[in-house]
Amino acid sequence: MAKQLRLALLQMNIEAGFPDQNLAKLKSLLEEAMQGEVKPDVVMFPEMWNTGYALTEIEQLADPDGEATIAFLSEFSKQHGVYIVGGSIAEAKADGVYNTIYAFDREGNRIGDYSKIHLFRLMEEEKYLQAGEKQGRLVIEGEQAGMMICYDIRFPELARTLALGGAKLLFVPAEWPNPRLHHWRTLLMARAIENQMYVIACNRMGTSGETVFFGHSLVIDPWGEIVAEAGEEEGILWADIDLDLVSEVRSRIPVFEDRRPQLYFKG
Ligand SMILES: O=C(O)CCC(=O)C(=O)O
């Protein structure tokens, strides 16, 4: 039986340092996503949607243990019978602040979480955030999926490891700014083509200080075709995907059977 999923990516502006305002924006987009005749199977949000990159105040602004976010998202997913890949948020733990995604199934159960493992030095993330120490995996409608965050897409080893572990979908929340639209699109495309998997990437839009975020959330299929791409405006990017295409593409060009791992660098 074909496995189709309807995705809704909430490409939103984020006010750095104003979690209540950002939550209100997220709620209104979530409600909008649920209003149509055909409901999404999965919704996702951008990176650090609660606080933005208010890094100098991040300890005070981050959600303690993610409790308030988890309670809200779990309730929403149960109420609407929808999977949520919950962006990422700034999450305050005893040893510091993490950039963390929580994922939920249609019954509101937490089915995965992932804290960004590659911290982005260009924005001094390593000074304010703790790096996660494990890969992000979840199962959606019986199919394996992986999670990475923003800068992580520059590390093809991580996406390949997730694909080797069975992932057919890769979720990527981001706050990826100008002037690197070319890198964003090319890296996402490459991760999809080389791993023959769906790449589902939700970027923010709007500005934060001098930094401009271009949106361009993307859904790319395992053959590298763009299923849907947003512009720079705020709104919901819709996409319908068919998971059977993953095995079809993997048998068309059997990359995973042709690998020679014994010859590769073991870093
Ligand atoms: O790698 C890049 O160019 C952008 C990464 C980034 O903005 C982030 O990880 O927050």
UniProtKB/TrEMBL annotation:
- Sequence ranges assigned to domain CN hydrolase in this UniProt record: 5-243
Molecular function per GO: hydrolase activity
Q: Which CDD domains match?
A: nitrilase_5 (cd07583)
Hydrolase as a keyword?
A: yes
Which keywords has UniProt assigned to this entry? Hydrolase
Q: Which InterPro entries match?
A: C-N_Hydrolase (IPR003010), C-N_Hydrolase_sf (IPR036526), UPF0012_CS (IPR001110)
PROSITE patterns registered for this protein in UniProt:
CN_HYDROLASE, UPF0012
- Identify the Pfam families for this entry: CN_hydrolase (PF00795)
Q: Which family does it belong to?
A: Belongs to the carbon-nitrogen hydrolase superfamily. NIT1/NIT2 family.
Q: What name has this protein been given in UniProt? A: Carbon-nitrogen family hydrolase
Source organism of this protein record: Paenibacillus pinisoli
